[in-house]
Amino acid sequence: MERQSLAEFLEQSARAVVFTGAGVSTESGIPDFRSPGGIWTRMKPIMFQDYMASEDIRAEAWRRKFAMEREFSAAKPNDGHKAIAAMVSRGEVSHVITQNIDNLHQDSGVPAEKVIELHGNATYALCLDCGRRYDLGAIRESFAQSGKPPYCVACDGIVKTGTVSFGQPMPEGEMRRAEEAVLGCDLFLAVGSSLQVYPAAGFPLMAKRQGACLVIVNREETDMDCVADLVIHDEIGETLRPFL
Ligand code: APR
Ligand code: ZN
User: Is the same domain home to 96 and 129?
Assistant: First the structure.
C-alpha cells in the first residue's frame, strides 16, 4: 500500500496537534541537545535539586545562560516554525505542544494561548517561592557585576529562568492542557524531537492509543518510529516548506 504523504494526513485530519523538540530550532541557529555537537554533548545538565542546594551551581547555571544567550537572542523563526504557524492559522492544527524554551513558536505567529510549553520558557525568570516574574536584562546586569545568582527582591526566594530542569516538577497546567489536546486530536505530528525525555515523550503514544494517526518528522530514528503511521527522516525546513 502506497504510504500516505504528510499532505494527505493533514488533508484528512480535522484536528491535528504538533509536538516539537529542539530539532525544529536548529535551522534558526540554536543547537539541539543530542545531535553531534548538541548541548548535552558539550556539558552535563544541571539537576534541579543541585540548583536549589548550591549558590555556586546557580551561578554556573546563570553563567551558561548568558553565555548561550548570544545564540538564542539572535535566533529567528525558520520555515519549520512558519509552516507550523501557517497550519495553526489555517485551523488545521489546534495546539503546538513544545519542549522548546526559545519562544520561537510565538515569535513565528502562533497565538500564545495555542502554544503549550512543557519545559517552560527561557526568555524570563521567576522567583521559585512567590512566583514573581523577572526581566532577564536586570539580572544580566547585576550578575555581570557581582557574579552572584539573583534572589527575589520581594521574598528573598531563589530566582531561576522560567524553564523546567531535570528533576523539577512538570508544570501541571501545561501537562493538563497538553493531555486534553492529545486526547482530542486525530493527527499527532512530532517534529524535531528524539522522543527520549519523559513525560513529554509519552504524548505520541497517548495519541496513538486514542486512535490518532502519528507522523514523525526527524533527521534521526526515534523509538516511536515503529508505531508511527508515517516517518520522514529528513530536514524539517525542507519537509514543511510546502505547507507555508
Ligand atoms: N531537521 C530534522 N531533524 C533535526 C534537525 C533538522 N534540522 N535538527 C535536529 N534534528 C533532530 C535530531 O536528529 C534529534 O533527533 O531533532 C532531534 C532533537 O532531539 P534532542 O536534541 O534530544 O532534543 P529534544 O527531543 O527536544 O530533547 C527533549 O530534553 O534535555 C531535555 O529539556 C530538554 O526539551 C529538551 C528535552
Ligand atoms: Zn519571591
Answer: no
The tally of CA atoms less than 13 A away on the side-chain side of residue 49 is 1
Q: How far is CA 169 from the centre of its chain?
A: 16
- Which atom of ligand 1 is the closest one to the Cα of 193? 25
Query: Ligand 1, residues 6, 33, 101: which to mutate, most atoms within 8 A of Cβ?
Result: 33
The mean pLDDT of 111-135, rounded to a whole number, is 97
Place of cell 545568582: 149
Cell numbers for 140, please give them.
544580566
Domain end point (choices 143, 163, 183):
163
Tell me which residues have their CB closer than 6 angstroms to ligand 1.
21-23, 26-27, 32-35, 38, 99, 119, 192-194, 196-197, 218-220, 235-236
This prediction's pTM: 0.96
Residues 108 and 196 in one domain: yes
pLDDT value at 193 more than 70: yes
Query: How many angstroms does the Cα of residue 91 sit away from the middle of ligand 1?
Result: 26
Count the residues in the chain: 244
Q: Residue 111: which domain range? A: 1-29+76-119+170-244
- The residue ranking higher by pLDDT, 241 or 72, is 241
Specify the number of domains making up the chain: 2
- Same-domain pairing of 215 and 129: no
